[in-house]
Design brief:
The chain is α+β, with helices and mostly antiparallel strands. It has one domain (about 5-115): Nuclear Transport Factor 2, Chain: A, CATH 3.10.450. Helix content is about 30%, strand content about 45%. It is built from 4 helices and 6 strands; from the N terminus they run H-H-H-E-E-H-E-E-E-E. It has helices at about 5-20, 20-25, 30-35, 50-60, and strands at about 35-40, 50, 70-80, 80-90, 95-105, 105-120. A 6-stranded mixed β-sheet has the order 2-1-6-5-4-3. A hairpin with a 5-residue loop joins strand 1 and strand 2. About 15% of the residues are buried.
């Protein structure tokens, strides 16, 4: 990766981790700043979420520790737009995740996220 891609990767990893932080998830203002107005999510649960639905859900979600993040990678897909892929790991609950982030006047915002549960019997890693 180029130095610019390394810098963007580090920043987007920190932003993804903020989105998983239980304290941040309960703070509607912090989450709102990270989610684009046109945000959509296809959750690991199979549900489709809009920005407002996610904000409402997170306000009532029981707190749980953030998962471990493995195999984090980015791909710049257009100027100011990056695809990130990674795996989250919790005891007996892993998922492959992807997000599309866009640089705005106020900073990076995620406008698409998808999670796909990994069956416990699938030990595979993301390949680059």
């Amino acid at each position: 990766m180029s130095p610019e891609e390394d810098e963007i990767a580090a920043l987007l990893l920190s932003l993804e981790k903020r989105l998983m932080d239980p304290a941040v998830r309960k703070d509607r203002a912090q989450i709102s700043a990270l989610l684009a107005d046109d945000f959509r999510e296809f959750g690991a649960s199979g549900c489709h979420w809009s920005r407002e639905a996610i904000l409402d859900l997170l306000a009532t979600e029981p707190a749980q520790p953030a998962p471990a993040v493995e195999d984090f990678a980015i791909q710049l897909i257009a100027p100011g737009t990056a695809l990130v892929t990674y795996r989250t790991v919790r005891p007996q609950q892993s998922a492959l995740r992807s997000s599309v982030w866009r640089r705005t006047k106020t900073g990076w915002q995620v406008f698409f996220h998808q999670g796909t549960k990994i069956p416990e019997s699938t030990p595979g890693r993301l390949s680059s």
